[in-house]
Structure formats: structure tokens, C-alpha cells
Amino acid sequence: MAPLRPARRLRLFVSERERHGGRPLFEAILLRARELGLAGGTVFRGAMGFGRFTRLHRPGLLEIAEDLPILVEIVDERAKIERLLAELGAMVEHGVAVLDDVEIALFGPPKP
């Protein structure tokens, strides 16, 4: 098994409909993370959810069919996650960030 290393995980829950800088918010966040040199990130589209205002978001309701929950997940060292987190306040109008300490194991050849 690959050796374990400490890391920080950022899970950001936003709406599919939200935008920043003329593009979907989740895309803007992922691109900014890449610009800052974070190790990587993934965007997940939720099948159903509700948030602070308890409005149900799910496919099949025409008025919110394009407003499904989105989860942006990024894992890297603490300092890099905190650098991105500091910028999210200017990007995200509505959302929830969840941070936790994790351990990672890297497989494959080292990054070039």
C-alpha cells in the first residue's frame, strides 16, 4: 500500500444554476483551483437535494430541472485548500463548505 499523507478535503455544495464570471459556478471554482495549483478536483451532480430554504431540487420539476445540487470536492494540503477557501467568498453567493482532515495515498508514478 502507498504511504498515507495528511491532507485537507473541501466539499462545496452549490446550485447548478449559479454562475460566476459568465460560466457555471462549479466550473469557475474548479478552474480557479487548477490555476492555484491544487492537486485536483471533481464535480458531482446530485440527483436530488434541498438546502437552507428547504426547496426540493430534483429532476422532473420543470421550474427547477436545471437547478440540481452540485458538489465540488477538492483534496490537497491544508495551505492550498485555505488559499482557495479565501477566494470563495467573492465567488459563492449561496452554498455550504465542509472541510475535514483526511489521509491520502497516492498511486502511480510521481507527478512530472
Looking at the structure, the CATH topology is: Alpha-Beta Plaits
Give a count of the beta strands, DSSP E runs of length 2 or more. Answer: 6
What average pLDDT do the residues reach?
87
Span between termini: 21 Å
The topology string of helices and strands comes to EEEHEEHE
CATH architectural designation: 2-Layer Sandwich
Domain module tally: 1
Helix-strand makeup class: alpha+beta
Helix content range of the residues, please? Answer: 10-25%
User: Which CATH first-tier class would you pick?
Assistant: Alpha Beta
Identify the overall geometry.
globular
Count of helices?
2
The strand line-up of the biggest sheet is 4-5-1-6
- Poorly predicted regions are none
Biggest sheet features? 4 strands, antiparallel
- Determine the oligomeric state from the structure: single chain
Key terms:
two-stranded antiparallel sheet, four-stranded antiparallel beta sheet, alpha+beta, Alpha-Beta Plaits, 112 residues, single chain
